[in-house]
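task queued by scheduler; priority normal; single chain, no ligands, no partner chains; default sampling; output format set to structure tokens
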Amino acid sequence: MHTMHTFVSLLRGINIGGHHLIKMPALKALYESMGFADVATYIQSGNVVFRTTKEDASSIEDLIETRLAKTFGFPVAVVLRTPSQLGKVIKASPYVAREGIDINRLAVAFLKSRPSAAHIKSLATVASKSTDEYVVAGSTVYLHCPNGFAKTMLTSTFFEKHLGVGTTARNWKTVTALHAMSVTAER
């Protein structure tokens, strides 16, 4: 019996403003066709929890990206995290425990790899104009946008451009929901 590994996959930029539309049943079917087990999607923004005997996250990301492009006809970046990685992300949030924080104003940007120190430094210069806060921790960026996400300059595109790595962001509620789903899938 091969050991099964649970992953949460986060797809970049699908079903936003009428672009790059992928229906969740089609996404689920695609994952199942790749031999993944216990496939479950969460809301429309491209979140899929699944289990596989494969262990190497970056090769699984490549596989999913290749199949998505082939099936749907446009490139979609995919970032994978394990349940324990997500758990650590949640525990390490610099904002959640702070007095007067509205968790609806918190988000996490997941990076495909760790950005360089030089990129992090230049990001600080550009982002200093923003009233929003962020903390880069490894391959995670924590966001606090007190005025909401609609007007923030700290978008996935902004981080991708200034950190030089693939990025996809989720609000706090989605992050915690995906963690709960992935922990349940592991049992």
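post-processing summary
- The first helix runs from residue 24 to 33.
- DSSP finds six helices and eight strands in the chain.
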